[in-house]
Amino acid sequence: MSPTLKRKHSDKTITELFTTQHPKPNSTAALSPTSKRSRIGSSEAPSESAAMSTANMYHFPSRSGKEVIDIASSPDTSPKAPQQKNGLRKATPNIAGGTAPKRMLVKNFKPARKIDPKAFLNQTWEKVDKALDTVFAQGKIDFSLEELYRGVENLCRQGLAKDTCDRLDAKCKRYITDTLKEKVKETLGRKDVDVLRATLQAWATWMDQMKYVAWVFCYLDRSYLLPKQDSLHDISVGLFRSIIFEHEKLKPHIVDGACDLIATDRDGKDLDRGTFGEAIKMFHDMHVYTKHFEPRMLELSQNFIHEWAERESSEKGLAEYVKASRALIKSELARVEHFSLDRSTRRDLVTLLEDHLISRKESRLTNQDEFADLLELNAVEDLKSLYDLLERRNLGSNLKEALSKWIEDTGTAIVFNEKEQDTMVINLLTLKRQLDTIWKTSFHRNAELGHGLRESFETFMNKTKKTSTTWNTDNSKPGEMIAKYVDMLLRGGAKAIPAQLSRKAEKPAAADGAAADVEEDNEDVMFDEDTEVNNQLDQVLDLFRFVHGKAVFEAFYKKDLARRLLMGRSASADAERSMLARLKTECGAGFTANLEQMFKDIELSREEMTSYKTLLASRDTTPNPQPFDLTVSILSASAWPTYPQIPVLIPPSISTTLSAFETHYASKHSGRKLTWHHSLAHCQLRARFPRGNKELIVSSFQAIVLLLFNTSDPTTRIPYTTIAESTSLPPAELNRTLQSLACAKLRPLTKHPKGREIAPTDVFTLNASFTDPKYRVKINTVQLKETPQENKETHERVAQDRNYETQAAIVRIMKARRRIGHAELVAETIKVTRSRGTLDVGGIKRNIDRLIEKEFLERDEEGGGGYCYVA
Amino acid sequence: MKVTIKEWNAVAAWRWDMPDDDVCGICRNPYDSTCSKCKYPGDECPLLLGECNHSFHMHCIFSWLKQESAQEKCPMCRQPFKSKDAVADDTEVQGDESGTALDTPA
């Protein structure tokens, strides 16, 4: 103590010297002792004059080795002054003498040191202690806080800061241990929440009381504790923490109390938000949040979530579980958000939740059966929730397996449903659309799932089975049905679109129409119809893309196109052309070359007929100008489907006209020969029925039969045999024709006896009561419809063609490779023929055998199991 | 009752007026089929009948006649090859597009 004082004293002397040199500023400083600035200035000046280093100048308090920083620039404060009341600075007698240059200030200091610092401390502390007791007892503060403050300040200035601090510490410790802790301890027997509440209570009290303590000990805090990187607040919090919170009996209860609050909230009961918020704040203030509270809370959360997940996942269905999980995550995060818990808590909690609810329940979430149920129900929202949940852990793609399985099962069921062959494409389209929607909205266009979707579509679309529907060929039925569906679209236009598929397309169209001007309504409808058909074609092509064996589609499409072209049944030439263009981009020019040729043939035929008619008109000398309007479609045989020649006796009136044209054609194109396909011809008849005139659109066969009844007697009865003789139609064809005339909805003929089936003993008469609201009546639907026989032939031809194509492929491969192993050849063949339709391995083997028989290849004797190409 | 035909939409397919089982003497493909270079039979790959009554795919005989060693002779009978009918030749070469030209002998 004494060296410190001495040094201090020497400091003072320097100032003193300075003061004498510059009396003026010093005098002002002396007169107004509160003006710190001038004092600091005065302390600076002597350091300059004494040629002290600048470092020293700025560090003089530390240089002096004192434990107290003289924030009030204390050189002239004398430690002797014992009175706290007036405050030292005011009382310093040396200042009063500062104006008198000859005053001996040194004398004044000496008696100050006579007072024992210990006694001074005790004396001061006594007062402070009493005040603290009042504060802790929450009594009325009837003392001057300023006085106490001064006292503490003086103590610090005397270098008694450490002692003061120790005493305060001990005092607080005692108070907390004896009073606050006991209060908290009283609640120990009760629930954890009560312990927490008591702790919070004590904490609040303590904090409140510490305010006073902080006021009183402010000087201590600033000057003694701050340089030690400490503070009164820290000490008070630390005391509370170490005595109450970290008490081994209390701590678990306090923390669990907070956790219990969360548990209550999780149970769905009301959360004591105030208490919980305060608790969190207290934990933060005590710096125990991360160390003590968070781990415990996470541990309990983990238990809770684990149990929750186990319970919920076993009790609830997939959709409900997903919904509940999402709700749980949401509420947990909302709580975190509301009480602004730490980011680390949030992160860990999210990890916990995701881990238990998603990762560990992954197999549950991607459960095949329940996922399938959701798909079955087309529960877009539930699927979306499920996907979103899984996607939190980037597991969305794991749905792929279940999705693929479901699609394959469902698709296969549709494809092999023999009873509903006709609606197969519609069902497939519905399925596709449904899945597309799910993929887009529920799965957020997840690339992997999209891939899986397409893959599984491809798989089931190409599953083949030798069933009766494909006449025991392994042709792909979807190919055929798609072709037929397209035919229906192109024949019927927008009207043909099944309701369940067009509904969606109609809605936006209707909205557009409403938005557009009323005047343009008509155009809109036209436009919409085209768009709708195009839409449908696009969708069908989406399906078509999945089909590997395009040969079946081609065969049926060609057949249907031929029928549409020859019967003039296309709804719109534009749609036909756009379909052709689509196929061209889809399958290449080779695929559509024949189809294009068909269009060209029809075009050329039209030109041919125009020129023929012009020619006839210019030669009107002919005695018998054409009795009727003749149109001939001239086909290039190779581009069109093959049609069987059906022998029929053409009435002379028609055959003469036909042969006239034939002669004309032969003379124009030498080297060409025309073959008539009467089965494809159709015509319009003017018929005078007893109940009115009608125009009948009939097939040529129907016409020929009807012409037999062309007598004046309406009651003519013609037996079956006579009809057969005079038309020379084969029985199958004749039966069909008669059936269409006498047993269908519209019956220009009457069969005796009545019945659905035609028997050779039947007799036919004209139906005198035939009538129809329309003037033009179409009865040739039989001709348009495909017979099972035709269907079978087409299938068999496709299957046959595939054998040829396979053989051709084998020969091409052999030609290139010369020598090849069996397995490799089979693999290559499958690769090459995939786009048109592949045979199974057995089929390929048979074709290899056939080629060996034809001596295109031979078995490789040396290589074993391979083949050589025989040039 | 009286039925009269108002309109008749006939369908006919044309083919080369050759015996069914005959093949082109050069490429050995049937006349109805194409020459070895073409892909689709029909107008694009017509036949050519020589004065010697031997007929070939037009593409086949043309490429034969272009060869030096052929000396413009029919490969079947070694007589100088000449197309039988100039008019028919034109028509065949141009195909049905020439159908509008009313050059048919009545």
TrEMBL record, chain A:
<feature type="compositionally biased region" description="Polar residues">
    <location>
        <begin position="16"/>
        <end position="35"/>
    </location>
</feature>
<dbReference type="GO" id="GO:0031625">
    <property type="term" value="F:ubiquitin protein ligase binding"/>
</dbReference>
<keyword id="KW-1017">Isopeptide bond</keyword>
<feature type="compositionally biased region" description="Low complexity">
    <location>
        <begin position="42"/>
        <end position="54"/>
    </location>
</feature>
<dbReference type="Pfam" id="PF26557">
    <property type="entry name" value="Cullin_AB"/>
</dbReference>
<dbReference type="InterPro" id="IPR019559">
    <property type="entry name" value="Cullin_neddylation_domain"/>
</dbReference>
<dbReference type="GO" id="GO:0006511">
    <property type="term" value="P:ubiquitin-dependent protein catabolic process"/>
</dbReference>
<dbReference type="InterPro" id="IPR016158">
    <property type="entry name" value="Cullin_homology"/>
</dbReference>
<dbReference type="InterPro" id="IPR036317">
    <property type="entry name" value="Cullin_homology_sf"/>
</dbReference>
<comment type="similarity">
    <text>Belongs to the cullin family.</text>
</comment>
<feature type="compositionally biased region" description="Basic residues">
    <location>
        <begin position="1"/>
        <end position="10"/>
    </location>
</feature>
<dbReference type="InterPro" id="IPR001373">
    <property type="entry name" value="Cullin_N"/>
</dbReference>
<keyword id="KW-0832">Ubl conjugation</keyword>
<feature type="region of interest" description="Disordered">
    <location>
        <begin position="1"/>
        <end position="54"/>
    </location>
</feature>
<dbReference type="InterPro" id="IPR045093">
    <property type="entry name" value="Cullin"/>
</dbReference>
<dbReference type="Pfam" id="PF00888">
    <property type="entry name" value="Cullin"/>
</dbReference>
<dbReference type="InterPro" id="IPR016159">
    <property type="entry name" value="Cullin_repeat-like_dom_sf"/>
</dbReference>
<protein>
    <submittedName>
        <fullName>Cullin-domain-containing protein</fullName>
    </submittedName>
</protein>
<feature type="region of interest" description="Disordered">
    <location>
        <begin position="70"/>
        <end position="99"/>
    </location>
</feature>
<dbReference type="InterPro" id="IPR036388">
    <property type="entry name" value="WH-like_DNA-bd_sf"/>
</dbReference>
<dbReference type="InterPro" id="IPR036390">
    <property type="entry name" value="WH_DNA-bd_sf"/>
</dbReference>
<feature type="domain" description="Cullin family profile">
    <location>
        <begin position="477"/>
        <end position="742"/>
    </location>
</feature>
UniProtKB/TrEMBL annotation, chain B:
<feature type="domain" description="RING-type">
    <location>
        <begin position="24"/>
        <end position="78"/>
    </location>
</feature>
<dbReference type="GO" id="GO:0061630">
    <property type="term" value="F:ubiquitin protein ligase activity"/>
</dbReference>
<feature type="region of interest" description="Disordered">
    <location>
        <begin position="85"/>
        <end position="106"/>
    </location>
</feature>
<comment type="similarity">
    <text>Belongs to the RING-box family.</text>
</comment>
<dbReference type="InterPro" id="IPR013083">
    <property type="entry name" value="Znf_RING/FYVE/PHD"/>
</dbReference>
<keyword id="KW-0479">Metal-binding</keyword>
<keyword id="KW-0833">Ubl conjugation pathway</keyword>
<dbReference type="InterPro" id="IPR024991">
    <property type="entry name" value="RING-H2_APC11"/>
</dbReference>
<keyword id="KW-0131">Cell cycle</keyword>
<dbReference type="Pfam" id="PF12861">
    <property type="entry name" value="zf-ANAPC11"/>
</dbReference>
<keyword id="KW-0498">Mitosis</keyword>
<keyword id="KW-0863">Zinc-finger</keyword>
<comment type="pathway">
    <text>Protein modification; protein ubiquitination.</text>
</comment>
<dbReference type="GO" id="GO:0008270">
    <property type="term" value="F:zinc ion binding"/>
</dbReference>
<keyword id="KW-0539">Nucleus</keyword>
<keyword id="KW-0862">Zinc</keyword>
<protein>
    <recommendedName>
        <fullName>Anaphase-promoting complex subunit 11</fullName>
    </recommendedName>
</protein>
<dbReference type="InterPro" id="IPR051031">
    <property type="entry name" value="RING-box_E3_Ubiquitin_Ligase"/>
</dbReference>
<keyword id="KW-0132">Cell division</keyword>
<dbReference type="GO" id="GO:0051301">
    <property type="term" value="P:cell division"/>
</dbReference>
<dbReference type="GO" id="GO:0097602">
    <property type="term" value="F:cullin family protein binding"/>
</dbReference>
<dbReference type="GO" id="GO:0005680">
    <property type="term" value="C:anaphase-promoting complex"/>
</dbReference>
